[in-house]
Amino acid sequence: MGQEQPIWKYAFTCVMVTISTLGFGRMSYGILMPFMKEDLALTYEQAGVLGTATSVGYLGLVLFAGIMAARWGSKRLVVIGTLLVAAGLFYLSFVQSFLSCMLGMILLGIGTAFTYTPLVNIVVGWFPKQRGMMIGFLVSGLGLGTLISSTLIPFFTDWFSLNGWRYLWVLYGALSLLSALTAHLVLHDPPVPARKNTEERESLFQEVYLHKRVLLVALIYGLIGFAYLIPQSFLFSFMLESHITRYAAGQIMAFGGLLSIFSGPLWGTISDRIGRKKSLLITLFIGAISMAIPIAFPVNAGFIASQLLWGITVVGMLSLIQALSTEQIHPAYAPIALGYVTVYFASGQLLGPGLGGWMIDHVGGIPSSFMLCSLLLLLAFGLSTQLHKQAAAEQLVLQKEHHTTDG
Fold this sequence. Notes:
The protein has helices spanning 7-27, 29-40, 44-72, 74-92, 98-126, 131-160, 164-186, 198-210, 212-241, 246-274, 276-296, 300-311, 314-326, 334-384, 390-406. It is mostly helical. The chain has one domain (7-189, 199-406): MFS general substrate transporter like domains (Growth Hormone, Chain: A, Up-down Bundle).
């Protein structure tokens, strides 16, 4: 397939969309949550449930995103999803109760489900040789969204007092409308590959869903999903409870967000040299250590060290596991594998913030939820040791066979 689209224009547009959907729609809640919690008189358990509500909306629709994209086109779904996220962000600026918040968070999850997987399909379809780099750009929206939120929240709370979080949701909604417009103007659906016959398609469908290595990658991705929203939801509150000022806490979060922007491309490059498995093991181990540091040292230096290690690894974990999911089977069915393992990831996200919030209220405060996060990442580390080195070699064989068949 010839690359007929400008790659950097697509990269910029994709980053805009993921900042809106993943950054503002998913990651910013943890930064705004302390102020929403105070204004709306929420418990930590309720705050955790709200974080889980986004995953409910995501999980409920992500299974159908691929089908809908195939029927209506990936571009259309990306634009619709980004508009839904914008609507949810605007709606959250007006909420007055826990239940109304939950509706807004579910809407954000639905919009994200409509957006991310179809966006991956677009960039992989147009730029298959730059798959790792483009996925790294997509996931960098997580870090950029965190950076923007962490930088702005101290100023908005100073300017608008208790209503600062509401005005920030409005700003996010406006920026997301701009992202939707840019996606509409720039993105195009890639050419649709020829479909296989029914028998072969059904056989490979079963092979994807029952493939042992795909299942292993899916379980690891699920554990990462379980873990990674816990610090995002409660780290800011942890710092405030540890007598870190709002401004300093925001700067520390921004520091981690800034580092995470480069995490995906960094670990993608490293994995090209030393392999996906080794790279994933390193990022999981460093991530587990980063979550234990603020438990032992809940002071400025401890939180900075934690965000340093977390920032340089968290997005790398996501990029590596997504790349791994596409390398376990025939290249033609990589999107099916990515969509499948994403269901496990979303299921983990569904459980993480809610259980973390429950542990904060009923077990041992915020440190107990960070210990849970660290243990989950160590469990993922253990499972990752079982990944087979020969998967990459087999992928090369499959690619050669695929090219030979095409030729």
